[in-house]
Write a structure and sequence with these properties.
The protein is of the alpha/beta class. Helix content is about 35%, strand content about 20%. It has nine helices and nine strands. Helix 6 (about 185-200) runs antiparallel to helix 8 (about 240-260). The longest helix has 18 residues, at about 240-260. Bound molecules: guanosine-5'-diphosphate and magnesium ion (MG).
Length: about 290
């Protein structure tokens, strides 16, 4: 059987996590329209009868600003060692420019095959897609270039086959029914964070983290941590309306992960400067 690891690289917001979910055939990585949604390395595992393709979804490359982003960047650097190929994701909807070239410089220097996915081609005109493909092709000496849509799944099976073909003969790295390496607690924390990100704006999303306290048969209890009192007020909302909405949206998906119904208890807490606190980051697995 063919098995191995493929790192997923690309600018923030080009659709890396959505693509990993599409290739893995289910939700493993959370998605939002806010940059830097992905904070930690996540394996999205695409299992087939004759293959196990492990996609390594990563936070975007960035200049470290605090302890959190410094850790994120170290994770990114380390993750590019020991992969069989790189899936370099671009957005067909956006200008392909300096940000993409910055990443291209790093991925084409790794010495492994680079497969380019030109994502978000849904609803774009053929001529526009063709000219974006030409621009993409100039980024470096790529192995293959696939126009795809992670949302409509257009081109996804062909992209998956292309990546599997690059894997060596090997053994299973994970049980063949597993789609991610995240623990249940971490999956729950990510789902709550995703809903909170989707419902907030400006600086609030980056100040949110989720700490799962208890996963019981009937009750799941988690803390939503923010950095200031005013962020807390936003997340709680008028008479608790915001945190209730976050809970409602997250509960449904948490039940899919757990396989049974639960009562989700969320509490918003202020934890000043958690992003700068190494002990907190360590405990949260970031
Ligand atoms: N139209 C369209 N939007 C997409 C596609 N893939 C991702 N997106 C959207 O792009 C945004 C960023 O996606 P995400 O996967 O979080 O990007 P990442 O930061 O690269 O991981 C989200 O709003 C997605 O819904 C696609 O194929 N087509
Ligand atoms: Mg992401």
């Amino acid at each position: 059987m063919k098995s191995g690891f493929v790192a997923v690289a690309g600018r923030p917001n080009v659709g890396k996590s959505t693509l990993v979910n599409a290739l893995a055939g289910g939700k493993v990585a959370i998605v939002s329209d806010k940059p830097h949604t992905t904070r930690r390395r996540i394996f999205g595992i695409a299992n087939g009868e004759d293959h196990q393709l492990v996609l390594v979804d990563l936070p975007g490359f960035q200049r470290p600003m605090d302890a959190l982003t410094a850790r994120m960047q170290r994770t990114v650097d380390a993750s590019f060692e020991d992969v069989q190929a790189v899936l370099f994701v671009l957005s067909a909807r956006d200008h392909i420019g300096a940000g993409d070239r910055f990443i291209a410089k790093r991925v084409f220097a790794l010495g492994v095959p680079v497969v380019i996915a030109l994502n978000k081609v849904d609803r774009l005109k053929g001529g526009h897609i063709a000219s974006q493909m030409q621009t993409a092709a100039r980024l470096g000496d790529f192995h293959a270039l696939h126009p795809v849509s992670a949302v409509t799944k257009e081109g996804i099976p062909a992209l998956g086959d292309e990546l599997v073909a690059l894997l060596p003969e090997g053994q299973l790295y994970f049980p063949s029914d597993q789609r991610t390496d995240l623990t249940v607690e971490d999956q729950i924390a990510e789902l709550v964070r995703e809903k909170a990100l989707q419902l907030t704006r400006e600086e609030v999303p980056h100040s949110i983290t989720v700490d799962v306290d208890e996963v019981g048969e009937k009750v799941v209890r988690a803390f939503v941590l923010v950095e200031t009192e005013s962020q807390k007020q936003i997340l709680v909302g008028k008479k608790g309306s915001m945190i209730r909405e976050i809970g409602m949206r997250a509960r449904h998906e948490i039940e899919l992960v757990l396989g049974h119904k639960v009562f989700l208890e969320l509490q918003v807490k202020v934890k000043p400067k958690w992003r700068r606190d190494d002990a907190t980051l360590e405990r949260l697995g970031l």
